[in-house]
Design brief:
Length: about 350
């Protein structure tokens, strides 16, 4: 498949301003269930967390389930919700898989060397497997991501990589792991790396890299399993005016490149595919800061912006809790910057 011609979309924050259609009094890791109900995994103190289930209603959403889960204490924690909504994984170091409803512990996953980051755990689309990557600044000889059986905690594979540490990991399918890690260009004088990231795609069975791509600045990726696509922003240079890229999951080819009108660049949050051709994207003023970002809704086929989400305000969206959408109902959910609330838009 050849790439579609690059498209440049004009950003105008006065275009169809959309306040949230609903606001929930809890924020955290988000996941829509197939039914359209929303699960929220909220981190508390001392390793504890709460799981909430909300169902849409006339004019508001109703809480229909809640459970507390406990894990080892730690300053940060990784969390994810399975696509079918029957499991979640949570933990600052030794992650555990919990069943839903009820929040009962099902399996304990092997401890990482240092700590889990907020986005360094992820389920496969089937929910059968969990990928875990260490977010700590670890020895080059210990750079691995591990795939576990979500039901038993049994280790399926350990994939060796060339990254120094990881900021994100996910699974495109039961046999494909995608990671984003800090590039290993060690500067002895600085005692740090070059701050570039590597987007990697690995085969679970063989551990081999299918493809790798160097990414500039601090972007995060989004996976579209049905279309077998990976979305990520690539600035081309730190803080440059770059584009959102849609990559083929099988070989990393650029399928689509979306640039923005003068004065805007790609934001750090991953885009959210509401449905094929309709994508919510974070954009930032070229001379602004990450907190000046906006979510805009783009019609890719028409090559235009169709809405501004959040009434044109500066970002209220949490970098550790990615936004998500339910394709059938076209609800989009996002967490405020402080992780206290969840905003919902009906985009149908």
């Amino acid at each position: 498949m050849s790439a579609t011609p690059p498209v440049t979309i004009t950003i105008d924050l006065t275009t169809n301003l959309r306040a949230p259609d609903a606001v929930l009094p809890v924020g955290g890791t988000l996941g829509f269930m197939p039914s359209g109900n929303l699960l929220v995994l909220k981190r508390l103190t001392s390793g504890r967390a709460e799981v909430y289930e909300f169902t849409p209603g006339e004019g508001s959403w109703t809480e229909v389930g809640k459970a507390e889960i406990k894990s080892s204490s730690g300053s940060r924690a990784g969390g994810a919700i399975s696509p079918d909504g029957t499991r979640c994984v949570y933990g600052p170091k030794t992650a555990k898989v919990y069943g839903w409803p009820g929040g009962k512990a099902m399996a304990s996953l092997g401890a990482v060397k240092y700590s889990l980051g907020a986005n360094t755990v992820g389920f496969s689309p089937s929910g059968a497997w969990v990928v875990v990557a260490d977010n700590g600044r670890i020895s080059p000889r210990q750079r691995t991501v591990t795939v576990f059986d979500a039901g038993t905690g049994e280790k399926r594979a350990a994939i060796k990589t060339d990254e120094w540490c990881f900021v994100q990991a996910g699974m495109l399918d039961d046999d494909t792991v995608v990671t984003l890690g800090l590039h290993l260009d060690w500067d002895v004088a600085k005692g740090w790396t070059d701050d570039d990231l590597v987007l990697g795609c690995y085969d679970v069975t063989t551990g081999a890299a299918r493809w790798r791509r160097k990414i500039h600045d601090g972007q995060r990726f989004a996976l579209e399993p049905v279309a077998r696509q990976v979305w990520i922003a690539d600035d081309g240079a730190p803080h440059g005016t770059g584009a959102e890229l849609c990559l083929a999951a099988d070989d990393g080819r650029v399928l689509r490149s979306i640039a923005f009108s003068s004065g805007w660049r790609a934001g750090r949050l991953p885009p959210v595919v509401v449905r094929p051709g309709l994508v919510a994207v974070g954009v930032v003023p070229v001379d602004g800061k990450p907190q000046d970002a906006r979510f805009v809704l783009l019609d890719l086929e028409a090559g235009r912006q169709v809405a501004t989400l959040g009434e044109g305000r500066g970002t209220d969206y949490n970098f550790d809790c990615f936004a998500t959408a339910h394709t059938a109902s076209q609800w989009l959910a996002s967490v405020d910057f402080f992780g206290n609330e969840t905003y919902l838009w009906r985009l149908a």
